[in-house]
Queue: 2 jobs
Job 1
Amino acid sequence: MIKLENQKITPIHFIPKFCSQCGHPLEKKFIEAESCERLFCFNCKTISYLNPKIVAGVIAKKDEKIFLLKRGIEPQKGAWTYPAGFVELGESVAEGAARETKEEIGLDVRVGQAIGVYSYSDAGVVVVVYRAEVIGGELHTCLETSEVKQFGASEIPWDQLAFRSTHDALNDWLKLEKEIE
Ligand SMILES: [Zn+2]
């Protein structure tokens, strides 16, 4: 039996206290059909499922160097990663990646091939990272981004990267670059 307490979830994923359908407080209930505990609304009899959120990002290259940003907010404030953020309802994952890139660093990108999908059992997100080509825009920083800088393949700040997925996606990007050369 899977107990809710045993599900390790990152802080990014809050546990809802109230039913999203009717606002009644949620309680734990063992669901026979699923052989596990779920958050359940005894008022409208709805199960609240806890699922990972989708994050989309790009590794965009221009003049043989990629764009990384220094995070201006927690988590991992001050560490480097590529532009990425939560996909919204009403957009595709690739569209979300392009929108986040525009918002965070100001560049318009044409989203290309997926580099990989980064998912870990103890993380509340699934990260999809694409290659991208810069087609316009002007670099900027914002509240979420304290600095934007271009790095060559040999200049990636491996010891100052923000997340496991940042590290893994950059590694896969490097492998792809070597295959394409
Ligand atoms: Zn309800």
Job 2
Amino acid sequence: MYKILLMGSQGSGKGTQAEKLSAQLGIPAFGMGQLLRDEIASGSDLGAKFEGILKRGNLVSDEDAAQMLKRRLVKPDTHKGYVLDGYPRNLSQYAAFDFDTPTHVIVIDVPREESLKRLGGRLTCRGCGKVGAMADGLKPDDPCVCGGKWFQRDDDTPEAISRRLEIYEKDTTPVIVKYGSRVKHVDGVGSVDEVFEKILHALR
Ligand SMILES: [Zn+2]
């Protein structure tokens, strides 16, 4: 049974690694943002409630989010486990996540300068919302295949990224402490496949 919490700052590559783990282990991978969108799309009562909350510009409470996760974790595809991407990210979410116990907590560590480098070159398409990288040759105002133009979002500036990385560290460090001996730190510097190998090793 693999009940894996995958933690890591923005730019740690954990989304990609979550997908690879899902394919390798035959278990679903999801993050709370995805679950929220799925819940709303399903037309459930809880989804309708979330839609209303978000429309008013408010945040879904930790209790409601945990309720949604609880429902997801009883679906039959999780019988061999799951990969939970980026949750719980603070002590309040940790407290709300009291209905299941992860078997493995993998923390992908990436030095702040490396995260800044990776995230600082991120561009978003104004047309379709797709995300791309300057490292791949894209430049602001270049056209996307959809006809829209690439641009750098305000929250992808170095200052905004630094601030988010600081918040991540401050909020998640106590969560990592709570999980104690279940936690394995993985060095997130290297190619996607190299980091994946390190994660598989940490799961053994
Ligand atoms: Zn586009």
